[in-house]
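Open question from group meeting: does this chain pack into something compact, or does most of it stay loose? Before anyone orders reagents, we agreed to write out a predicted structure and look at it together. Recording both the input and the output here so the notebook holds the full record.
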Amino acid sequence: MPVLSHQQLQSLLEQHLVRVNTPQNSARLVAANLVDASLKGHDSHGVTLLPRYISAILAGDLNPLAKLRVVRDAGPLLAFNGQHGFGQVLGKEMMEAGIERALQFGVAVVSLADSHHLGRIGAWAEQVADAGLVSIHFANVAAPSAVLPFDGRHPRLGTNPFCVGVPVTGRRPVILDFATSSIAGNKARIAFNEGRAIPEGCAVDAEGNPTTDPRWLMQDPRGALLAFGRHKGAGLSLICSLLGAALSGGETESHQIAPRPGIINNMLSIIFDPARLGAGENYAQEVLAQLDWMHHGQEGRDVMLPGEPEARAYAQRLENGIYVDEVSWQQFEALAQ
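C-alpha cells returned:
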C-alpha cells in the first residue's frame, strides 16, 4: 500500500477538492483536517474519506459553497444550520463563535444541524482547549441506523460520537473522543478494505450472530454494530442523538434515513471557562496533580491518558509517512481519471 508524506497528501487532497468547485481556502481546511486525523492514527476519519466526499459533492449531498447560517442567537446560546456544507469549515467557524461567547459570558451552548461530516470531533475540542476553555460535544450521524440498542434486535442508533476536551497548563490537552459504538463505522470500512477482521464483541451479522467479519457492516444484507459497554454505551448514544440532533434541529435516527452519498452530522457543544468555576485559577494545578497521579507507581505498565495515543501516532507518522490502504488508493486513482 502507498505511503505518502503529510505534505504530499495535503496537496493531493486540495487538488481533488478544487477540481469539484471547492473554494481554495475551504479545500485547504478540509484537506488539513483529514491529513491531521490520519497523522493522529485515525485513518477512519482521515484522507481515505476524500473519495466519498467527492461522490457526495457530485451527487448534490455536499455543498462546497454552503455557509454557516445563524438560526438563533441568545447571548451565550447560539444555533446554526450548516446547509450540508463542509463540516471542517463549519465546525471551525462554530467553535470560533462558541469560544468568543464563552470568553464573554463564561459559558456558551452552541448547536449545529445539517452539517456534512464533521470529521474527528476531537479536532474541535483541541481548538477550544487552545483557547484555554473546556468543551463537551454530543454528535449524531443522520444516516441509516447502524447500532443496536442494548438487548435489541434491530439497529436504532448511530455511531454517535462523544467528546470532552480539557486544557492542561504547559502540556497538551486531555481529549476524550470516541464513538459510542464499540468501534467507529469507518474503522470497519478500513478493516474491510484491508481484509482484516474487526475485534470480537463489536458486531453481529444479519441474523444477530456475533461476527468479526466487517463484510456484515459494509454489504447487504447488513448486520449491526454493538454499543460499547453494553447498556452504558447504548444510553450515551441515545443522549448524543437527543442532544446533538433533536435539540439542534437535525434529524434523529427515528427518521429512518435512507442510504445517502454524504455523511450528515448534527452536534451540540458546551464550552466554558474553567477559571470561573469553584476552584478558580487553582483548577490548573489540580488538573496537573490528577494527571500525574494517573501515572504514579505504574512502572512497567503503559498507562495512556486520553489524547496520548494520538500524540504517539502523530510523531511516528510525521516522520515515516501515512499509509493509504490499496482499495482507497485505487479510488484516488479513479478520481484522477
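Observations to bring back to the group:
The chain has a mean pLDDT of 96.
The chain has three domains: 1-59+308-337, 66-181+228-296, 189-226.
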